[in-house]
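Chapter summary example: a protein plus PBG.
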Amino acid sequence: MLHNRPRRLRKSSAIRDLVRETSLSPNDFIVPLFFQEGKEIKQEIPSMPDYYRFSLDQLKAEVREIWELGIKSVLLFGKVPDELKDNKGTEAINPNGLMQRGIQAVKEAVPEMYVMTDVALDPFSSYGHDGIVKDGQIVNDVTVEVLAQMSVSHAEAGADMVAPSDMMDGRIAAIREALEMEGFVNTGIMSYSAKYASCFYGPFRDALDSTPGFGDKKTYQMDPANRIEAIKETLLDVEEGADIVMVKPALAYMDIIREVKDAVDIPVSCYNISGEYAMVKAAAAKGWINEEQAMLEMLLGFKRAGADLIATYFAKEAAKLLS
Ligand code: PBG
């Protein structure tokens, strides 16, 4: 005689709904947004089908649509023209730079939208690296000073939260101190605390034209083989004053999401990155998988793994299906 029949709890959709452990909602999503100079531009990114880079006028319309879908936050990335790139991050701290105007545009479109901004030098760097380059090395401490100024500049433009994605040492403490000193006591920090040197960033680098000009990012982004180091990096960022920590990429790093979630007492996010998006889109276009189901299963998996928040290019599509 069978005493345990776990299938009883899967007998009908009603009971399955009743015992479901994890659920998705538009409140879980952060929408990454790409923008550029110009007018009336909505340009599809070749390696990211159905995903676009907008001029600021079009960005506003997009942000309104995102808000109407019940999504509360966006993460901003600007594509800076080549002639403004240098090895100092000059344009990154320009109060009238593209990012700063992007922040203002989003706030004009939807003042309640929670605006997060990417903080890293790669889109502004003539070398395509996240930091300042000297003798072929990415130098840590001078980079951190610029990242702190950049964060203050984003806060001045109206950002609610800065999201340093650079993996320099000590940048969370430096950013926190700079924000406090300038009176931005309510500006949050979402730290990309465990960010791996991944091949899955390829399509994103197409979107922003930010592929490194030499070498790779392995001296600052983490080795995909490491697990304990992710916890070390994350705990350092919590101590330095991060409000939210992040694991990136997401799909190949579900174990890290769980371990980070168990190790900290602040919200954990993950970044469902460009290459993960592209894989689903490409397989779906071939008719090899069902796009909607694949997307929802993946997003649910991130939540089950422990992510409280998910930055994802699927956010709009998922929000539509969930409503
Ligand atoms: C760079 C940055 C990257 C992403 C977000 N910020 C790429 C990189 O580190 O080279 C990747 C996002 C994605 O692939 O979707 N600071």
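Key point: Residues 118, 120, 122, 130, 165-166, 201, 204-205, 217, 273-274 surround PBG (CB under 6 Å).
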